[in-house]
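Regression test case RT-17, inverse folding.

Input:
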């Protein structure tokens, strides 16, 4: 008899539980997978390392409003000065064409020495000069007031021999006035001056300088302007410096200037 075949029951294979679909989509609607990447992969991958950055601070700049205000102020100042220069130039041109101012003329016509002697030890020199000066005002519409406080002096080789002053007077339009002035003074340490004077007197040419500082006021119409100061320098060449003798002026050159 054949052996009974044993039949063993074969267990049925276990069924895997059904995979539940996620109720919420991993990728939001209206977006693509490439925008956010794979969420599962994002969970597995570590977060990227953050680089440490040093903050950048730009250089400080001055405020633009302040610069603009300074430029405007400078521009306004320059424009104001420009207009002032134009106005002053226009007034000066009008004054020149209306009044036609001209420089006064001065000349030394003659000179006479009434005293020119030394003391016993030749240490002091006493000198008195009489000088005739002609002052001419060539202006048609400008008068000159010669004020007090003028100063005249005669010099020889840088040494002052005598001094004096002009009288106070008014010189009208196109007027010529001849002034006779007495100048006197004394000079110390005159021994060296005597030697130089004797040499020039032998040559027949003695250089003298006459200097004048005269305060004046100009009269234009009925208007009297502020005080000015006339400066006159005359270079003279005389033949001798002998007392009680008329001195012949061989050459005379006068220059005029003025200042406030």
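Golden output:
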């Amino acid at each position: 008899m054949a052996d009974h075949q044993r039949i063993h029951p074969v267990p049925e294979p276990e069924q895997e539980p059904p995979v539940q679909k996620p109720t919420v989509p991993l990728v939001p609607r209206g977006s693509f997978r490439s925008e956010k990447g794979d969420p599962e992969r994002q969970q597995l991958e570590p977060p990227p390392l953050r680089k440490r950055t040093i903050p950048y601070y730009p250089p400080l700049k001055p405020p633009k409003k302040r610069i603009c205000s300074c430029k405007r102020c400078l521009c306004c100042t320059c424009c104001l000065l420009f207009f002032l220069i134009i106005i002053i130039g226009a007034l000066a041109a009008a004054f020149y064409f209306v009044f036609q101012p001209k420089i006064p003329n001065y000349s030394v016509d003659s000179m006479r020495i009434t005293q020119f002697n030394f003391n016993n030890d030749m240490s002091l020199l006493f000198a008195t000069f009489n000088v005739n000066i002609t002052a001419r005002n060539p202006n048609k519409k400008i008068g000159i007031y010669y004020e007090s406080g003028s100063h005249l002096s005669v010099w020889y080789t840088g040494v002052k021999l005598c001094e004096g002053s002009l009288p106070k007077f008014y010189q009208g339009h196109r007027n010529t006035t001849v002034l006779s002035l007495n100048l006197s003074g004394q000079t110390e340490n005159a021994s060296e001056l005597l030697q130089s004077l004797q040499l020039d007197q032998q040559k027949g040419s003695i250089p003298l300088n006459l200097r004048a500082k005269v305060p004046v006021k100009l009269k234009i119409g009925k208007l009297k302007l502020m005080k000015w100061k006339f400066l006159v320098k005359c270079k003279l060449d005389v033949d001798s410096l002998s007392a009680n003798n008329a001195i012949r002026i061989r050459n005379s050159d006068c220059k005029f200037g003025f200042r406030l």
